[in-house]
Write a structure and sequence with these properties.
By secondary structure, the protein is α/β, with parallel strands linked by helices. It has helices at 20-31, 44-56, 71-85, 108-129, 156-176, 197-210, 219-230, and strands at 11-15, 35-40, 61-65, 90-93, 139-143, 182-188, 241-244. It is globular and about 50 Å long. The chain starts with 10 loop residues before the first strand and ends in a 5-residue tail after the last strand. The chain binds NADP nicotinamide-adenine-dinucleotide phosphate.
């Protein structure tokens, strides 16, 4: 089977596929033959652009709105995607937020907002997707971060939320293994997206000079790893977090 067709007949739901790493993953999965559901929270324009790129290249894709902090929105999303494409083989969850604050200026609302989007969303999405997924054969990919194991000042709550994602995929793999569904996380270092624009503006030179591969990571650097974890080639990997940071850690 050629690499370009290795996901043909598969349906991939890419949550947070409207921008950044999720958009690159959606395009990559489509280029390998998957039909792709691309979700957004507010940026419908960005999701529509990803869908247009995929359909213009001969693939199949559609955009769906969902805020993964809201359980009813997740249920509606899963039902809509399943009705449109006839089931789900691959779930990629790239939705997330990354506000930083020093210890002295955080409050409960700040902590809850991050934990809701990055942790509660991960749990609810996984829980809602599993009953609709191909079993055996389903694939789930979430996003941790390099910061989960190498936090920097002011990143504490975000780092903790991503450590939770790594723990969740490890623990969920014990429950999903018997169903033949794999679940893993990717832990990127700094990748150039809207999420990191301010950090790169401030510290880009230092990041480049301390990264063995000598540049800032791009969404396509991560999309290939997602595609591998979504493909049959990763059959024997589950519960793991794959660190991808250009050698920085
Ligand atoms: N970029 C990095 O350096 C880096 C490093 C390590 C880990 N990560 C992780 O990788 C993932 C993707 O990051 P990114 O840089 O691609 O982010 P990004 O460019 O900021 O895109 C975030 C995506 O998440 C969606 N989203 C945010 N909150 C949501 C919610 N409550 N419900 C549904 N969708 C929501 C956004 O939708 P809208 O377009 O509608 O706003 C957008 O599609 C995140 O989990 C992030 O924590 C990123």
């Amino acid at each position: 089977m050629s690499a370009s067709s290795s996901l043909s007949s598969k349906v991939a739901l890419v949550v947070g596929g409207s921008r950044g790493i999720g958009a690159a993953a959606a395009r990559k999965l489509a280029s390998m033959g998957a039909q792709v559901a691309v979700t957004y929270k507010t940026r419908r324009d960005a999701a529509d652009e990803v869908v247009s790129d995929i359909t213009e290249a001969g693939g199949k894709a559609a955009a769906f709105e969902a805020d993964i902090v809201q359980a009813p929105a997740i249920d509606s999303l899963l039902q809509a995607v399943s009705a449109r494409f006839g089931g789900i083989d691959i779930l990629v969850n790239s939705a997330g937020i990354a506000p930083y604050r020093p210890l002295g200026s955080m409050d409960a609302a700040f902590v809850r907002e991050i934990m809701d989007a990055n942790v509660v969303g991960t749990v609810l999405l996984t829980q809602a997707a599993v009953p609709l997924m191909t079993s055996p054969g389903g694939r789930i990919v979430h996003f941790s971060s390099r910061l989960a194991t190498s936090p920097i000042p002011t990143s504490s709550v975000y780092a903790a939320s991503k450590a939770a994602v790594s723990a969740l995929v490890h623990a969920f793999s014990k429950e999903l293994g018997p169903k033949g569904i794999t679940i893993n996380a990717v832990a990127p270092g700094v990748i150039e997206t809207d999420m990191t624009a301010a950090i790169i503006q401030e510290r880009g030179r230092a990041i480049r000079s301390t990264t063995p591969l000598g540049r800032i990571g791009q969404p396509d650097d991560i999309a290939g790893i997602v595609a591998f974890l979504a493909s049959p080639d990763s059959d024997w990997i589950t519960g793991r977090t794959i660190l991808a940071d250009g050698g920085l850690s």
